[in-house]
């Protein structure tokens, strides 16, 4: 039982619903929950409605993306709830590094961390005789983590014009391939795809209404890695297909 998620009270729901309503796409009976997010040794409470990003299959990190109402600030935010691969650099630290270096068009970190005592245990049984499907060279230890960021974006397929689409993709690539990110810090995103490029409408967005406005953001830095560590990461990344299909296709030797 996960006691870090409970039903929101009527009062909490009444505060959160006006901010979350524009992000509720499906017609269903609404249920709002209160979620605890690690925050520098303490906890921050957020109110969430339906997720706008859900897992597309059984294998993977079981990632949920939820627009949330931040009880502390009263602002809208975005909560990423996922089972982090403990062999990879921590996305939380990666985002903090990017933010501290003022890399543009990447999520702005609010808080986050690993949920205590929520960790997979399959690695403990990898060598058991009864585990006939085991593949010892490649296994994952996953920890449950939540990351709260400021921006809530629209999917790339919600573009308003071809000009806006081109600009949004360009701006998202500026995040990974900027001089600060790639050249100075030697960080690669490794999972650039249409699903990880978002359209952000906020006070940083372009005021140009001729193409639809907004600005591009490159999201999901959980596969990001320092270029010095690429050789160590490659043998594990390939057999388990951690990248999206589009990203894997780009890496194929043809």
Automatic annotation (TrEMBL):
This is Fungal-type protein kinase domain-containing protein. One of its GO terms (molecular function) is protein kinase activity. It comes from the Eukaryota. It holds the Pfam family Pkinase_fungal. InterPro entries: Kinase-like_dom_sf (IPR011009), Pkinase_fungal (IPR040976), Tyr_kinase_AS (IPR008266). Residues 40-234 form the Fungal-type protein kinase domain.
